[in-house]
Each structure stands twice: as structure tokens, then as C-alpha cells.
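User: Thanks for the earlier help. One more: DNA-binding anti-repressor SinI. Can you show the sequence and predicted structure together?

Assistant: Of course, both are below.
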Amino acid sequence: MDKSNQGKIEELQTVELDMEWVYLLLKAKKQGIHADEIRRFFNDRTLKAM
């Protein structure tokens, strides 16, 4: 039985990205910025990029 936690590269990147988002959202919360504000900001940026 393989007990390696290496997984696929995509899985590792996803976990790292998820952890970065959690960290950023917690930092933003401490600064008084709500998650909805962050989502709106990125949604607006995405629309402008298109």
C-alpha cells in the first residue's frame, strides 16, 4: 500500500492555492475586508480583462 502524500502535481497546486486563499481571506478579515468585497473585486477585474 502506497502511503505517499505526493499525489499529482495538479492536486498539490490546488491545495497550495486553496491554502493561499484561506490565508489571504483571514488576513483581509483582520483588516475589516469582507469576502464578498474580495469576490466582487475579482469578478469586476475578470470582466474587465475579457
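User: Great, one quick takeaway?

Assistant: The chain has a mean pLDDT of 76.
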